[in-house]
């Protein structure tokens, strides 16, 4: 008895089986090669999508704009803080200067200084020296801010040197002064005018700085919104393109595989047909075998 094998049957059946097996081996080799080629093609097309994507450049531009706005925001906020400090301090200086001037006329209408009046003026002088010294000199290129605060600070030495004495306050314009009281009163009056101007200008600059700071904050929000939107929308779009590429080549490989399976099925059916009928022992059909 001959040993069983996979090629029992007619010569045509044997050849068909051999052809099918060879075809399977050949297909597996070709399919593996095709997969490698398709993998390279997929990577190439994905690289092209990434290379042609302008999202990184757009994001980089937005990030630069955002950083510039942040820098400007820091500068304007510092200027605003300094202006706010000056406005509050100038308001206090206005009050102290007015108190010092009023001390000259609290008893005898600017004609004489009493001991109490001198004491009051000296107290205001000392407070004014501290406040004037604490005023901040600050500028911003986009906000008009004349050097009016500097004009007030320039009065520092004059105020510090004020030394009222008990006695006469000469009338305005006296050619030969009795003492320095009239000069002190005149200097305080000049200081009052300078402080008024500095206060008004600084208050306007503070309002402008506050508005500019709000505008920059709005710009920062807009830039951040744009960056978030681009990151989400564009990255999703790019991922969609990549997924489409993968799906396209997956369908190609699937089609190739289905085509092969169909051909192999046909060969197997042909092999079965060439093997003839499967006749059971004892059947009358054995008479024709």
Q: What does this molecule look like?
A:
The two termini are 20 Å apart. Helix 1 (11-52) packs antiparallel against helix 6 (181-274), helix 2 runs antiparallel to helix 3 (115-134) and helix 2 runs antiparallel to helix 6. Strands 1-2 form a two-stranded antiparallel ribbon. With 289 residues, the protein is an all-alpha fold. It is rod-shaped and about 145 Å long. The longest helix has 94 residues, at 181-274. It has helices at residues 11-52, 55-104, 115-134, 148-153, 156-160, 181-274, and strands spanning 112-113, 167-168.
Can you describe this structure in just a few lines?
This protein has 289 residues and is mostly helical. The protein is 75% helix and 1% strand.
N-to-C terminal Cα separation, in Å?
A: 20 Å
How many individual domains? 2
Q: Can you write the helix and strand succession as a string?
A: HHEHHHEH
CATH hierarchy class name of the largest domain: Mainly Alpha
Mean pLDDT figure:
81
Low-confidence stretches: 1-9, 283-289
- Structural class per helix/strand content? mainly alpha
Q: How would you characterize the largest beta sheet?
A: 2 strands, antiparallel
CATH architecture of the largest domain: Up-down Bundle
Helicity, as a percent range: over 70%
CATH H-level superfamily of the largest domain: Lipoprotein, type 6
β-strand amount: under 5%
Biggest sheet strand line-up: 1-2
